[in-house]
Structure formats: structure tokens, C-alpha cells
Design a protein that fits this description.
Layout lengths: L1 E4 L15 H17 L1 H12 L10 H10 L2 H19 L6 E4 L5 E8 L2 E5 L8 H14 L3 E5 L10 H9 L4 E3 L3 H10 L9 E3 L4 H10 L4 E2 L7 E6 L5 H12 L6 E6 L2 H15 L5 H11 E5 L3 H11 L3 E5 L4 H4 L7 E4 L5 H6 L25 E8 L2 H17 L3 H14 L1
Parallel strand pairs: 1-11, 4-5, 4-7, 5-6, 7-8, 9-10, 9-12, 10-11, 12-13
Antiparallel strand pairs: 2-3, 3-14
Helix pairs in contact: 1-2, 1-7, 1-8, 2-7, 3-6, 4-5, 4-6, 5-6, 7-8, 9-10, 15-16
Pathway: Amino-acid biosynthesis; L-histidine biosynthesis; L-histidine from 5-phospho-alpha-D-ribose 1-diphosphate: step 9/9
Cofactor: Zn(2+)
GO molecular function: histidinol dehydrogenase activity
Length: 424
């Protein structure tokens, strides 16, 4: 982790296109097999990639009940409370249909409806994330999605992790399947004898899952093509170096390509954070991953002024932004681009990951410049509603026909003319 000048700052754009041609070929072959062979392909591919021979793809009620027995009562209580917080936060995001009437009798509006079905991908194996299940399923349920489908790769025992099953059940998921990888994305996009086709696929996964989501986009909707995780901390001389170092490492342990950046107006704080990162890194269970991340994508940038520091943050457009200054609220209005903003030294990034209630599915790699965290709107669609009155058509028909002829669309114009002729 090096100290650098603001002038050396680069945006955190890490493209999915880097060295993925081999993986894409594999993904295309897997998707083709699932589309043509359905369940047979899913059983074969699960045995090939997960080394598990399944008797059935769907999770049973008995397996869900077993999961509650496997997980200790305190953890179940924590999951339930987190689910409640997430639900409360997302309830505030619900939209309503709206209409208005003009004096000539025209009625215009927007009808808002939930998607019929959504598929949630939950990573498995050594990276089981029940929190991501909650973050995906609860906003969908709040939106009113009728069918929520969970897919996740099975473990060696042919089952899904207990925490994932409990989280899914607490989030109201009724359809759960023991499949992962690109084949799970294909099953959700095309449908099989067992797995229902859905309208949208969300959730994090490895490079094969990400590439598969991109390939099926258009046939179904997707949430995003997520890149490696990232955190930026904006700090002044009042910040706690130990806290900052711990928070930077909380993202560095995700992936060797995760980014952890401090932007500060205080050079001494930067030096202290670098030393703290070295010290704390030594005792991390995922030390090797975090060390690679810090080495490749960790940095401390020194700004001459806080305005310069804020400009740097807006250039980065980080997934997670922590503001650790004497008065963090004073800077909030200046932040234009960030996925989630954590204010003050007690608002550590994991607070948002697990418990506060805000969504942790966030835009990465600078895409916070134009996209938002996963939210209830992502599970809804909107239809325009138009009811023109006779008087409105008489008043505006000639203008509409003229506009159509301007674009060379005579049939459009005549569709209006025929009505005007009848009304004369």
C-alpha cells in the first residue's frame, strides 16, 4: 500500500473483458446444453463441476426444517432481525401508480406493477452468503413479486448451507434449487422441467455466473455485472487510523482484485493507516487474499484541500464510501457518485453489509456514476397510460399528423386523419 499524490489517481474501472475468452466459450457451451437438455444437463453439470450426484434439484421442506436445527438459536434470531431491518428500509421505496386529468378530458398516468418472477443466485461452496439472499429476496417481496426462485450450488453433502436456507425462508422464498454456476443462470433464463423460467436474474457469482448473466440479458433482465468489491475512505486529521485500516481490510479480504483506498488531507494519518494495515493484515484468516488486494489495488492519496479530496472521491465513484471527518454530514451534499455512503466513525461498512437495512448489492468499478444500489424499483415495471378524449383529439390531431409526416410516416398520420374526418 503506497502513498500517492492525487494527480496519480485512476478510476477503479476493472473490466469484465480482461482475459475471459476461454470462460465465455465454456459459458456458451453450458447455456446451450441447458437450453437443449433441461434437467438432464443440470444433473450432469452439477456432477461435473460440483462433484455431487443429486437425486433431486429442488430443496425439500424437510431440508429447510433441518437447516433451522443446524443453526444455533442466536444466529437465527440475528438473521430474523436483519431481515426485519432490510424489510423496513425497502418498504420506504415503494411506488404507487399515478394519474392526472387535463381540462380537455385527457387522462395520463403511469401504472406500476411488480415483475411476475425473479431468480436469485446465491454463491455456495466456501463463499456462502445468506446476507445476499436477504438483500435480493426481501426487496422483491416488498415489490410484490409473486414467484421468487433461489438457486445455489450444493455442498459435498448435496445440500445448501443451513444459513442460506434459513435466510431464504425468512425472506419468503418458496422455490429453492441446488444448482450453481452458469448452468443455474441458464435454467432460470430458459426454464427446465423442474426449474421455472423467470423474468429477472439477480445476485453475485464468479466469472462464469457473471458472463452467463450477460449472455442471457435481453431474454431476461439482470441486476448488474458486478466487478470486484471496493471501498474508499474520505478522512481528515480527526479520523482513527485503526478504524480506517480495519475497514479497508474488510473489503480487501473479498478478492485479490478488491480495491481499498484512503483519500485524506492529513499525511500523518496516511502514514499511520499504512502501518495499521500491515499490522492488522498479519492476523487475518484470509491474509493471502487481502495482501494481494492491498498490494495491487490499495492506496493512500494525499489531498491539499478537502475540496480536492471530494473531487477525487467523485472521480472514483466508489461502491462503498466512508466519510470519517469531524463533521461528515457537511460533506454529504458534495458527494455526487457513490453506491453507499457511511457517515462517521461508527458507521463501519459491514454495518451496511449485514444489519442496517440498506442494500449491499451496489454498483462497482465506477458505475455509481450512473447506477444505484439494488432496490424495490428493480423488481417493478411501469406502463404509460393514455386516454385521449374526443376534444383533445380535435384540438391536437392536426399537430400529431403533421409531426408524423415530418418523419415520413404517412400511415401514422392517416390513423389520426381518419378520426378527424369522422368527427367533422
Amino acid at each position: 500500500m503506497k502513498m500517492q499524490r492525487i494527480s496519480e489517481l485512476n478510476a477503479l474501472e476493472r473490466s469484465l473483458e480482461e482475459n475471459t475468452s476461454f470462460q465465455r466459450e465454456s459459458v456458451l457451451a453450458i447455456l446451450k446444453k441447458v437450453r437443449e437438455e433441461g434437467d438432464v444437463a443440470l444433473f450432469e453439470l452439477t456432477e461435473t463441476f460440483d462433484r455431487v450426484s443429486l437425486d433431486a434439484l429442488e430443496v425439500t421442506v424437510e431440508e429447510v426444517n433441518e437447516a433451522y436445527k443446524e443453526l444455533d438459536d442466536e444466529m437465527i434470531s440475528i438473521i430474523k432481525e436483519a431481515a426485519g431491518n432490510i424489510r423496513e428500509y425497502h418498504e420506504k421505496q415503494k411506488r404507487q401508480s399515478w394519474f392526472f386529468t387535463r381540462p380537455d378530458g385527457t387522462v395520463l398516468g403511469q401504472q406500476v406493477r411488480a415483475l411476475d418472477s425473479v431468480g436469485i443466485y446465491a454463491p455456495g461452496g466456501t463463499a456462502a452468503y445468506p446476507s445476499s439472499v436477504l438483500m435480493g429476496a426481501i426487496p422483491a417481496q416488498v415489490a410484490g413479486v409473486e414467484k421468487i426462485v433461489l438457486v445455489s450450488p450444493p455442498g459435498e453433502n448435496g445440500k445448501l448451507p443451513a444459513a442460506v436456507l434459513v435466510a431464504a425462508n425468512e425472506a419468503g422464498v418458496k422455490h429453492m434449487y441446488k444448482i450453481g454456476g452458469a448452468q443455474a443462470v441458464g435454467a432460470l433464463a430458459y426454464g427446465t422441467e423442474t426449474v421455472p423460467r423467470v423474468d429477472k436474474i439477480i445476485g453475485p457469482g464468479n466469472i462464469y455466473v457473471a458472463l452467463a448473466k450477460r449472455e442471457v440479458f435481453g431474454l431476461v433482465d439482470i441486476d448488474m455485472i458486478a466487478g470486484p468489491s471496493e471501498i474508499a475512505v474520505l478522512a481528515d486529521e480527526t479520523a482513527n487510523a485503526r478504524y480506517i485500516a480495519a475497514d479497508l481490510l474488510s473489503q480487501a479480504e473479498h478478492d485479490p482484485r478488491s480495491a481499498a483506498i484512503l483519500v485524506t488531507t492529513c499525511e500523518q494519518l496516511g502514514l499511520d493507516v499504512i502501518e495499521e494495515v500491515k499490522s492488522q493484515l498479519e492476523s487475518l484468516p484470509r491474509k493471502e487474499i487481502a495482501a494481494q488486494s492491498i498490494s495491487a489495488y490499495g492506496a493512500v492519496y494525499i489531498a491539499a484541500t478537502m475540496d480536492e479530496a471530494v473531487d477525487a472521491i467523485n472521480k472514483i465513484a466508489p461502491e462503498h464510501l466512508e466519510i470519517m471527518t469531524e463533521e461528515p454530514m457537511e460533506l454529504l451534499g458534495q458527494i455526487k457518485h457513490a453506491g453507499a455512503i457511511f457517515l462517521g466513525e461508527y458507521s463501519s461498512e459491514p454495518v451496511g453489509d449485514y444489519f442496517a437495512g440498506s442494500n449491499h448489492v451496489l454498483p462497482t468499478s465506477g458505475t455509481a456514476r450512473f447506477s444505484s444500489p439494488l432496490n424495490v424499483d428493480d423488481f417493478m415495471k411501469k406502463s404509460s397510460v393514455i386516454r385521449y378524449s374526443k376534444q383533445a383529439l380535435l384540438n391536437n390531431g392536426r399537430k400529431i399528423a403533421s409531426f408524423a409526416r415530418l418523419e415520413g410516416l404517412e400511415a401514422h398520420a392517416r390513423a389520426i386523419d381518419v378520426r378527424l374526418e369522422e368527427k367533422r
